[in-house]
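Dear support,

I submitted the protein below through the web form. The confirmation email said the job was done, but the results page showed an empty box. After a refresh the structure appeared. I'm attaching both so you can tell me whether what I see now is the final result or a partial one.
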Amino acid sequence: MQTTEGKQLTADCCIVGGGPAGLMLGYLLARAGLSVVVIEKHPDFLRDFRGDTIHPSTLEIMRHLGLLDELLTLPHQRAEKLQAEVAGQEVTMADFSRLPVQCRFIAFMPQWDFLNFLARKAAAFTGFTLLQSTAFDDLLYEKDVVAGVKTLQGNESLTIRTSLVIGADGRHSQVRTKAGLRGKSFGAPRDVLWFRLDKVADDPEWGMGHKGPKQNFIVIDRGDYWQCGYTIQKGQWDELKLAGLDALKHSMAQVAPFSATRMAELDAWDKLKLLSIRIDRLDHWMKPGVLCIGDAAHAMSPIGGVGVNLAIQDAVAAANYLIPPLKKGHVTLRDLQKVQQRRQFPTVATQFLQIKMSSNKRKRTTPSKVPQMIGRFPFLRHLFGRLIGLGFRTERPRYMD
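What the results page shows now:
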């Protein structure tokens, strides 16, 4: 049982980070009867421009958990295909219609709605605790083994003692830094500028919910506004700011479905958010008493929108391997290694494809041969649909009672 002793909590597991991986794992552990504390530094989940693609692989997990029907009552758009505009022609790049799952589509859903849904479902279990406005400070050690975390709630400290700490705190993970875990960075030649445009009456209807990329511009239908992404060269941000906001809007208008005038509401630099793309991977996701999953273990490029779904798959694999030893009160290093061994191949394979697709070796002015290949070999759109929709390895929850 979870107990409170002054400014100290005791739980079977403490998860740092209330993102998709953290909340999914917290839900699964609590559902299995374990006590779990999830700490989240922010007071809520309302942050713009987070990954919002819920792929067929994740929807299938929600089906197995009996949560799918209720999840799909939340506002979302569906994409049965992913299309791109290349050289003035619209090309189907990925087709999900033949996937061996119930939901053969990507659901575009604001991430805060998905996270609130998971948190609400997890809260139905007595062993689940979500501590928001609670910042990770440091790892707690006993005899060189991680035995908990030190946190800050405003100016007050809170210690959480546990058998296992999970780092699910994203690509800038403090857990992996404090644990001294090291890895490799593979770089990325592009960054993304995200911003929003309110819808107006004469905007076109894009029923897919996702239109793009048209060269290097992406549009996502958010209901009453468009979420827009404009990719730039790595390190180009300062140069663009020197040239001025009007110059940037004119540049974007060359590849966007919006004119520079249509983007008039984009009148201040603070309305743009720079996403610095990085692709990296830890050599070892763990040390005694601590395990990293999701972006904390392997930061992904936004290509394909797969990051959220890989994180969810990590969480399910972690639950499958760790619930039995957590119930016994002793998690070994070997138990933690099994999680990485299970998830290593899909991580490496996905990052390999992302690196190849984002390579700068081909000049940006040279048309990609991929759409031409898909035109000649239509089966490729179904292959890409499987790779994007299901990934290289899917996970299914084992412990659901």
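Response: this is the final, complete result; the empty box was a page-load delay. The longest strand covers residues 156-167.
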